[in-house]
Write a structure and sequence with these properties.
heterodimer, A: mainly alpha, rod-shaped, B: alpha+beta, four-stranded mixed β-sheet, 56% helix
Amino acid sequence: MPALDAMFPYVFFGIVVSYFTIVVVAFVFLMRLRKNSDKDDPGGINQALRNEMLQYFRYEVSQLREGFQKDLTQVYNELHMQLLQDRESFATYLGQVIRELHDAKQDQVNKLQEGFKDIPNVFAQSLEHSKKEMLLNLNQKLELEYTNLHTDYKNRVEGLVEGYRHDVNEAKQRVITQIEESMSGFAQGVLKEYVAEALSDQDHERIIIHALSRAREEGLFRGV
Amino acid sequence: MVSDNSLLQLCLLLQFKSSADAFARKLESVSGEIYTSSFSFAGSVSHLFSPSEVEWLLDSFNGLGLQEQDRVAVQAFFEAVSRYIAETPVCGCTFAIQPRVPFYNAFFASLREYIGNDRLLMDVRIDPTLVGGAIFVYQGRRFDFSLRKDFLHFIAERKV
């Protein structure tokens, strides 16, 4: 259909040209014929014949005109019908296209609307997914960092422990010495102040005699 | 030369190693005067030794029938006494306080009894840090019976 629509101007132009060509040829033929009749007036075609031929040509022209008109009308009608059909088909097609477009648009609109409806969910899902990925990456990163830190921390701690162990042993010895000195000082100070002074000379002498007895019992003077 | 009994009497007289050392130093001092013209046994010892020591020296000196003109014999006497003192066993005794003299007599008697020998000297030292009791050192052995040791043992057992 679109091809016929495109050919219609050319066909119409060809018919018009043919029509005018025939009219011009007939006019030229008549004019020459009239001229010849004028020349032949004295001894040429008489007026009756001229009229008869003129009628004949007029009839032929009218027939041709009618024929052309019929053809032109037919062509026109056909073209018109074709055009109508084409228009109808095109309208149908256009309607279909419009409907399809409308449907597609509506579908897209619906989809968009659905999409808009799902946007919060999609956004939430995206956020959740991103969050999970971030958490996963963060977890992996943290595990790696934790492993590195743990290894580094372990090495540092082992070194520190060795140092601390050495320091602790030294400190332990110092504390033991201090405790012994403190105990000795306590014995020398507090005991001397509160015990020794609480003992009378007789008490001291009895304790010394008791100590002498213990020395004898424990064999200090044995084997002499 | 000098009888054992006489020397034992000297030990009982001296009792303490410090007294015996002082006695030995005095003997050495007197020995330095033996060969001087002004030497007199009684005169030399009387201004150096205590009365009881002078008495023992004179008794021992006279008991041996020695003459002060016999300087060699006098020197030998002094040397014998000094050697006896140096070779006499010593029992180290450390107390927290300075006991009274009567206590020393009783203590020394008990000590000689336990050892079973009158030839004995006490090397007494005073250490107040003992708090009480005594530390004995005899023949290379040491026994600590002080209250300080008992207290430290008490603390160690209870992990105070």
